Structure formats: C-alpha cells, structure tokens
Amino acid sequence: MSQIEDNFFDVEGSTLNQSLSTEYTITGLERAQDYGFRYRAINANGGGAWSAITYITAATIPSAPANAPAYVSSTNTQIVLKLSRSYDDGGAAITDYELEIDQGFPPTALITSGISTFTKVTQYVYSTHWFSYAIDSTTLSLTPGNLYRFRYRAKNKMDYSPYSDT
C-alpha cells in the first residue's frame, strides 16, 4: 500500500499484501477524516486497471444520548420531554434522533425493564444541545393516568447509537 497524498491510499499487491484476501487493514487513521481507497491486482504480466475510488469516513456509531428523557410537563393531550444530545458523535455528524415509547402501565403496576415493548414515536433532527419534544397523546392513543417510559437514540452515517436510559 502506498499513500499517494493526504487521506488517499492505493492498495496493490505488494510484498506486504501478496494474497487473494478481500480484506485489508490500515491502521493509524485519524478519526472523523474521510479517506479514499483504490486497488488493483498485480500478476506476472503487471498491474491491472485500478478500481473506482471508494471514500470511507474513519468513524463509529455515536454514543448513547447523555441522559434519559426527562419529564417536563403534561396536559390531557400532550407530554413534553426534555432530551439531550449524545456526547460523542462517533466521528461522523449526527443526522437525527429516534424517540420511542413503551406500551404504558397503570400507576399501580410495577414497571421493570424486562416487560416493556417500545415502538417508534418519531424521528427528529437535533438542533440544540438541550431540546424538548411534545408528544401528542391523542395521535398515539395514550391512556390517561397510565405511566409511560421513553427512550431515544442518535444516528450518524454509520448507524444508530445504543438507546438512552428510560
């Protein structure tokens, strides 16, 4: 492999990579940087045509949002939650968050993490460090008096983060 210029690599059959492997590991990359890669086969007759350049960001999924959704207020038609952003975007910008709600329980029921079934409420774009979200209880068919748990997760171009606490 030879580095042609900043953040661009040619991967070819050198003495370091004389195999038919379709995997090649490159170390020492800088997080949140985009890198371009291309490759070609080399045999006794010389090198073949270069592949198209593929660009990859050195990134991972974001961290889970920093805090569980916090209750702000409610009326008979909505619940307002305060949400916080993930502390670590994983090296790629967070594109949105996904909020989920469980099925709800009467106030006398014991709520444990093992019995909740969560469903997606919405997907929304983060705009500030702290933000709130109002859930319309009539659209979701929430039962007045029931207790509901919420969780959310961040997404970047790599995938979703783990869920927040509830």
Could you please describe the fold and organization of this structure?
The structure is a single chain. With 166 residues, this protein is mainly β. It folds into two domains: 2-57, no CATH class; 70-155, Immunoglobulins (Immunoglobulin-like), CATH 2.60.40. Helix content is 0%, strand content 37%. It has no helices and twelve strands. The chain has a four-stranded mixed beta sheet with strand order 1-2-3-6, with no helix packed on it. Strands 7-8-11 form a three-stranded antiparallel beta sheet, with no helix packed on it. Strands 10-9-12 form a three-stranded antiparallel beta sheet, with no helix packed on it.
Question: Which helices and strands, and how do they pair?
Answer:
Blueprint: E1 2-5, E2 8-12, E3 34-40, E4 42-43, E5 46-47, E6 54-57, E7 70-74, E8 78-84, E9 96-101, E10 119-124, E11 130-136, E12 150-155
Parallel strand pairs: 2-3
Antiparallel strand pairs: 1-2, 3-6, 4-5, 7-8, 8-11, 9-10, 9-12
Basic shape: elongated
What's the CATH class of the largest domain, please?
A: Mainly Beta
Give the N-to-C terminal Cα separation: 47 Å
The helix-and-strand class reads mainly beta
How much of the residues is beta strand, in percent? 35-45%
- Within the largest sheet, what's the order of strands? 1-2-3-6
Mean pLDDT: 79
Strand segment count: 12
The number of distinct helices, counting runs of at least 4 residues, comes to 0
H/E topology pattern: EEEEEEEEEEEE
Q: If classified by CATH, what would the architecture of the largest domain be?
A: Sandwich
Main sheet overview: 4 strands, mixed
